[in-house]
Amino acid sequence: MSDQEQQRYTISEVSERTGVSIDKLRRWDTSEGYYKPKRDRMKRRYYTDEDIAVIKYIKGLIEHEGLKPEGVRKRLALEKRGFGKPQTRREAIALLNKIEAEIVSMLELLEKNTSHP
Question: Which residue, 24, 29, 39, 47, is the most exposed by fewest CB within 10 angstroms?
């Protein structure tokens, strides 16, 4: 599907799909500058599936990681430049090993806490 054929969503449709209020979507676009939706000839915002994915990601950063606006901007900027993602096979393996160690640690804690009556 080309850019011209891509599905377009209105701000109200995006609000319904993401659970983010229309006011907040506008603020994230204008004041916070997290993303820039395209506009039609009438200057109305329209969003693509990719925009919706970014909005859901931002919502997760705020709700689940507790980031404030500046933290969200920094994270998005780093990820746009490719930071925060493994760049080599070695980095990917190191990240997987770290995740595995954290999972093992959590499982040990759970086992320890559930073994006490």
Answer: 39
